[in-house]
Write a structure and sequence with these properties.
The complex is a heterodimer of chains A (763) and B (87). Chain A is of the alpha/beta class. Chain A is built from 26 helices and 29 strands. Chain B has one domain: 2-Layer Sandwich (Alpha-Beta Plaits), CATH 3.30.70.920. Helices cover 26% and strands 39% of the residues of chain B. Classes of the chains: A alpha/beta (763), B alpha+beta (87).
Chain lengths: 763, 87
């Protein structure tokens, strides 16, 4: 006897849950007896389903996902029990993964704008047009009249091909990606403090940590699987504490012991105050500081005494006044940090999307350097990532205007030579000057300095801050958009739209928050005429006359194999992470310099293959990306937001995500149920403010900033602090970024999405 | 018919109440508490729409829940009629 389809699916579902919890088979288990499913029948019916190993398409956690395929169609999604990132658990976004593959708005064929209208074209027509137009612009106006704008959702191989084409062959460093909008300040923090980008520790530290210090991150909603690991750690060890610094109350507060609900944009004073208390109350590791730390004020070296003097101003009372929290809570947080042996700091957009983003990253690192809580089990200064391959493709692959692959920079002559040799181009082909960063790039579209742009897997016509200023430039330039979905705000103003294969329809590598690179299998044929982005770019390269250096890219593996040569001998060495090895394992954490190397749990210390024992001479940590092996504690002042509140604009506006939607809804907007779940753009308003303004939930309110206004529905809820509103930025029909400010951090060039001044009017 | 499984993590002190409430939701079946805080839940929904509504309802409206974590979701809404073979 065989099972009905429903029984088969029930058995599959229960089996996946049981396996995830490690409670063995559902068959013969009393708890599942009511399912009444026969094991033999289940095994028989399971035979036709092939499960393909992959990685979730959404955030940067890197959860292992299995995509089930039968007869060429996706039949199921389940968490990958063998993947240690998530051990089989997924978050609710997993419910949407397979639906997006077959979404009605998948782009199935190329389109070219003719007489103002996008019309169907052949691949040859579309690619010939792109190649000829780009060549014409390059020849007439020079290479810097062209640009590439990529994505932290693109595969590493895709970003690599684009980088090679634009920086190495066209000859422009106008290569950017949307991680500039989310992670650039974290990069700036890691590089300036430790000499090299990306965290020192890994997720393994979560299960050994005693205090989680979470700043500007709604982990429960944005990174639910990591939140679960933190919650588990606390449940199993009741002494574990969780301190949150954030302007909003979020679901993450469910597990918090202390919440410092700060005024948006003013939390630097708190971190400096904590540093002062750590020193004043002798909760520092003097040996570690002596051996492994230098001090700087940002322009020159200073002494530890200078730093102490700098901190004098940052009393708990001063910080409390700046930030709108209680002084005794700051002292409590500092003592928890200082007295708890193992501490992990975690942060996300609330720290990075600020004009003081790099400063704040530095200040968080300072706390770990002062206490030596780094490079050992349960300790790290650990930035969380918003996109699945911002780390792997863009930060490691060099997909920003100042970078080259393998944590290299264009300004370094030796780095240019090394990459030029690998790309088989003369070194002078790669310009030494960084190209235009994201905001400058879109500004240049408006001024006409950039005349042609290739946009891959992202939607800047919705995601750029102070949007009204930049939309016309996007319309005026020759814009090529490679996307899996159409229309998006960007694709509908493009001149050429190219259909890209989506998750599950292509293989490739994603690198997540903890330095782990993971292979995703191709489980399905691309929809319609869609093609892999890497092949599209290589095809354009050939049509522009660069065939010699792109014709070897006949497979994804060929691209990966060339890419990992760029990493040989670097701090992010991936040469041991060959494609064939990655297909077998659940990812590898670099540095992984050989095929028999297991990967690295902590950098800059014993166990890191590049840890120089001779130079370290007994030191526990040696930051080998710095000339003397010492990290830097920075004296950074408590810089506030670019646009403080004022009499005319008395309310602080913050923006962010909600659980049901992701980014600009290019993907989640394809799911009618999700759109219905949160159909209307809204603003969260604190009940005290709402009372004062006479506003109730579902009332319409107008939000006004210096840049524009937007009418949305009010949601009165005790989440934002009084004087602050929160607006999700997902809905294309209600462009939140009309309101946001395009001021950028001077170091990272990341815009300040998290703070702007506004007023709210009842409509 | 969409079939999905989830692990619902609840505070141990709230777990009995959570199970009681879950069992009152049509199309939701619980399969025991495992390792103190994990409730295995099977959802058999008429559509993707209903599945997500249920998941959202559970996640946002239940007190005492730490999180909801899908472990499996079927991808085809038209499977229910496919009875393969009997005997």
């Amino acid at each position: 006897m065989s099972l009905s389809r429903r029984d088969f699916l029930r058995a599959s579902a229960l089996s996946a849950a049981a396996t995830t919890l490690g409670i063995g088979s559902i068959f013969g288990n009393d708890a599942f007896a009511k399912a009444k499913i026969d094991k033999t029948d289940f095994m028989q019916d399971s035979k036709g389903v092939q499960w393909h190993k992959s990685v979730c398409r959404f955030c940067g956690v890197g959860c292992g996902v299995m995509l089930g395929v039968k007869d060429g169609k996706p039949v199921g999604i389940r968490g990958d029990k063998e993947n240690t990132v998530n051990s089989g658990l997924l978050c609710v976004k997993a419910f949407y993964l397979h639906q997006m593959i077959t979404a009605k708005n998948r782009l199935l064929y190329p389109m070219i704008r003719k007489n103002g209208k996008l019309t169907r074209a052949t691949w040859d027509e579309a690619l010939d047009l792109v190649a000829s137009k780009f060549s014409e612009i390059r020849d007439k106006y020079g290479p810097d009249a062209l640009a590439f704008y990529g994505s932290g959702q693109a595969e590493t191989e895709e970003t690599y091909v684009a980088n090679k084409l634009f920086k190495g062959h066209i000859g422009t460093n106008n290569v950017e990606g949307n991680p500039r909008l989310c992670m650039a300040s974290a990069v700036g923090g890691y590089v300036s403090t430790f000499g090299a980008d990306e965290p020192i520790g890994t997720y393994d530290d979560i299960e050994k940590c005693d205090l989680f210090f979470i700043v500007g991150s709604n982990t429960a909603e944005a990174h639910p699987v990591l939140y679960d690991r933190i919650a588990q750690r606390k449940r199993q060890n009741p002494n574990v504490k969780i301190v949150i610094v954030d302007p909003r109350k979020t679901p993450t507060n469910k597990i918090a012991d202390l919440h410092l609900q700060v005024i948006p944009g003013y939390d630097l004073a708190i971190i400096n105050a904590i540093a002062k208390i750590l020193i004043d109350e002798n909760m520092i590791d003097e040996k570690f500081i002596e051996e492994s730390v230098n001090f700087s004020n940002g322009s020159e070296a200073i002494t530890f005494d200078d730093y102490k003097k700098f901190l004098e101003k940052y009393t708990p009372e001063y910080a409390a006044k700046q930030c709108g929290v209680k002084a005794e809570d700051i002292v409590k947080a500092a003592r928890l940090f200082g007295q708890t042996p193992r501490v992990m700091s975690m942060w996300c957009m609330g720290v990075n999307q600020r004009v003081a983003g790099v400063f704040l990253n530095n200040l968080i690192h300072n706390l770990h350097l002062l206490t030596g809580k780094l490079g050992k089990d349960g300790c790290d200064s650990f930035s969380l990532t918003g996109q699945p391959n911002a780390c792997g493709g863009v930060r490691e692959g060099g997909g920003l205007c100042h970078l080259l692959p393998g944590h290299r920079v264009v300004a370094n002559e030796q780095h240019r030579k090394e990459i030029a040799e690998l790309w088989n181009v003369p070194p002078e082909k790669i310009q030494p000057k960084p190209g235009k960063h994201t905001v400058a790039m879109f500004e240049a579209l408006g001024t006409g300095d950039i005349k042609g742009i290739y946009i891959l897997c992202t939607n800047p016509a919705q995601s750029i801050p102070n949007l009204s200023k930049y939309l016309k430039g996007m319309e005026d330039a020759f814009m090529v958009v490679a996307e899996s979905f159409h229309p998006s705000e960007t694709s509908q103003v493009a001149d050429v739209v190219l259909p890209a294969a989506f998750w599950g329809e292509k293989e490739g590598v994603y690198g997540c928050t903890e330095r782990r690179s993971q292979h995703m299998a191709q489980a399905l044929k691309p929809s319609g005429e869609a093609r892999w982005d890497g092949f599209i770019l290589a095809d354009i390269a050939k049509r522009m006359g660069y065939a010699e250096n792109f014709e070897q890219f006949t497979s994804v593996e060929a691209v990966w194999s060339e890419y990992i040569k760029c990493t040989k001998g670097k701090d992010m060495d991936l040469t041991g992470a060959t494609f064939s090895r990655l297909k077998k394992v659940r990812g590898l954490r670099w540095p992984v310099p050989s095929e028999d190397h297991p990967g690295t749990t902590h950098r800059f210390t014993e166990g890191d293959p590049y840890f120089p024992k001779d130079k370290a001479a007994g030191r526990r940590m040696y930051f080998y990306a710095k000339p003397d092996g010492k990290a830097v504690i920075f004296a950074r002042p408590d810089k506030g937001p670019e646009e403080p509140t004022s009499a005319e604009y008395p309310i602080a506006l913050t923006t962010g995500r909600i659980m049901e939607q992701w980014h600009t809804m290019t993907m989640t907007g394809q799911i009618p149920e999700l759109v219905r779940a949160a159909p209307n753009p809204y603003v969260e308003i604190n009940p005290e403010d709402a009372k004062q303004w006479g506003v109730k939930t579902r009332d319409k309110v107008r939000i006004v900033t210096k840049r524009g206004s937007l009418i949305v529905e009010a949601k009165v809820v005790d989440r934002p602090r009084k004087g602050t509103i929160f607006v999700p930025w997902h809905w294309p029909e209600s462009l939140t970024n009309i309101l946001t400010i395009d001021a950028v951090d001077p170091g990272s060039k990341e815009p300040e999405y998290k703070v702007a001044a506004c007023r709210v009017e009842k409509v | 018919m969409i079939v999905a499984s989830m692990i619902i993590k609840a505070f141990p002190e709230n777990i009995d109440e959570v199970i009681l409430k879950l069992n009152n939701i049509p199309n939701v079946t619980t399969y025991g508490v495992h390792k103190e805080e994990n409730i295995i839940v099977l959802i058999e929904a008429d559509s993707e729409d209903q599945l997500k509504d249920l998941a959202r309802y559970i996640n946002s409206e239940f007190d005492g829940i730490l999180g909801t974590y899908p472990t499996f979701v079927s991808a085809d809404e038209n499977f229910d009629e496919e009875i393969k073979t009997v005997n």
